[in-house]
């Protein structure tokens, strides 16, 4: 029904609602609806940010791979703060299933992206670090992985004072 609603929608709000209903399970219908939404709103940057956020917040096993794939979209740029927040920030802050995956890949991804964004926009990079600073709320294995990601950030070459302060404070807990 959600796929049908996405196809039949005559406005962005209804399409977003249908996509939201499709977003929690991988399926050909979800893939098609996301592709249609992307094509339909290709020239509207604010709406494209919603598309990026949908990809980032999908509580599915492929979420991190999907986020990495979305980073190759021609409209994505780490130097665009809204785009970076919509994809990377939303993944870290609003996708607890994928961000807190037991293997720590979500934490490593955020550390990697924080270091890249820090070279372009330290304030944006610093604001995305908050989820790593919440390591005390997690089980011991995830705590260790989150602290390791913060340590990776702190070891980054040429780290801005903004990111250093948040990462160091986060590591101390």
Would you give an account of this structure?
This protein is mostly helical and 173 residues long. It is built from 11 helices and no strands. α6 (81-94) runs antiparallel to α8. The longest helix is centred in the C-terminal third of the chain and has 15 residues, at 140-154. It starts with a helix and ends with a helix.
Give a short summary of the structure.
With 173 residues, the protein is mainly α. Helix content is 68%, strand content 0%.
Whole-angstrom Rg? 17 Å
Distance between the termini: 45 Å
Shape: globular
- Name the beta content range: under 5%
Mean pLDDT: 96
Major beta sheet summary: none
Low-confidence stretches: none
Number of strands: 0
Discrete helix count: 11
Helical content (DSSP H or I, runs of 4+): 55-70%
List the secondary-structure elements in sequence, H or E.
HHHHHHHHHHH
Q: What structural class is derived from the secondary structure elements?
A: mainly alpha
């Amino acid at each position: 029904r959600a796929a049908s609603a996405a196809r039949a929608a005559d406005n962005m709000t209804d399409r977003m609602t249908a996509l939201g209903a499709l977003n929690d399970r991988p399926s050909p219908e979800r893939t098609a609806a996301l592709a249609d939404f992307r094509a339909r709103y290709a020239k509207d940057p604010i709406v494209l940010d919603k598309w990026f956020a949908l990809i980032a917040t999908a509580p599915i096993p492929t979420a991190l791979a999907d986020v990495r794939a979305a980073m190759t979209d021609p409209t994505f740029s780490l130097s665009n703060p809204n785009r970076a927040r919509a994809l990377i920030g939303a993944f870290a802050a609003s996708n607890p299933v994928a961000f807190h995956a037991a293997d720590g890949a979500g934490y490593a991804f955020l550390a990697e992206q924080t270091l890249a964004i820090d070279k372009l926009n330290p304030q944006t990079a610093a604001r995305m670090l908050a989820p790593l600073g919440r390591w005390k709320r997690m089980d011991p294995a995830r705590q260790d992985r989150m602290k390791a990601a913060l340590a990776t950030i702190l070891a980054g070459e040429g780290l801005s004072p903004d990111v250093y302060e948040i990462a160091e404070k986060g590591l101390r807990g």
